[in-house]
Structures are given as structure tokens and as C-alpha cells.
Design brief:
The chain is an all-alpha fold and about 120 residues long. It is built from three helices and no strands. The protein has a single domain, classed as Four Helix Bundle (Hemerythrin (Met), subunit A) (Up-down Bundle).
Length: about 120
């Protein structure tokens, strides 16, 4: 594994993790207890008490929940990649092969090589 690439990606991963936590509205603290995989609770403002307003609120909730899930998934992949950098296994596919450098440049949190990503 290219050590220079690992160090470059470590900075990118740390920056992205900070950005995602900011978007989630939680600077490094967990709110939930298993409600969501990353234990973050999405923020859902109350729209109103009327039936039509509640429909909008439910629609917004569903949208926010999907975005929160995607961000949490990405954050978990980033944290896994950072652990791999620390323990010296960064760049190794979950199936045991080496992850291509161009893939790691494009997706620093990649867990698999191109072959196993399909």
C-alpha cells in the first residue's frame, strides 16, 4: 500500500467525517440507542397540527430519514477506513485482494476492490 496515499486519504476521511457529523447536526455525540445504525436521531421540525400539515411533515420525515441513513452509512465506512489506516490494513479488500489506488483516490472509504464492488 502506498503510504503517501494512505496519509492523503486519512486527511480527506477526517475532513469528510467532520462534515457529515456537522450535516447530521451532531459534533461527535450520539443521541440514540439503536434507533438508527449510527445511533443518530435526525432532526424533524414540527410543521403543524392540521391534517395537511401533518402529511407534509410525514413526507419530510421520510426524506430526512433516507438522507440520514445514507450519511450514517458513509460515516461508518469512513470510520472503518480510518481504523484500517491505523492498523495497517488500509487498501485491502474485504475479500482479501488489494484495492486499486485509482479506486482509493476516487473513494477513500472503499471497502472492496473494483472486482468485488460489483
Amino acid at each position: 500500500m502506498n503510504q503517501k496515499l494512505a496519509e492523503e486519504n486519512k486527511k480527506k476521511l477526517l475532513d469528510e467525517a467532520k462534515r457529515i457529523r456537522t450535516v447530521l447536526g451532531h459534533e461527535g455525540k450520539l443521541d440514540g440507542k439503536g434507533e438508527f445504525p449510527g445511533e443518530y436521531k435526525p432532526d424533524f421540525p414540527e410543521v403543524g397540527r392540521e391534517e395537511g400539515e401533518n402529511a407534509s411533515e410525514v413526507e419530510q420525515y421520510a426524506s430526512n430519514l433516507a438522507v440520514t441513513q445514507d450519511l450514517e452509512d458513509k460515516l461508518m465506512n469512513i470510520e472503518a477506513a480510518l481504523k484500517k489506516i491505523e492498523n495497517g490494513t488500509y487498501g485491502v479488500c474485504e475479500m482479501g485482494d488489494e484495492i486499486e489506488e485509482d479506486r482509493l483516490r476516487a473513494l477513500p472509504e472503499a471497502r472492496t476492490c473494483k472486482t468485488h464492488a460489483q
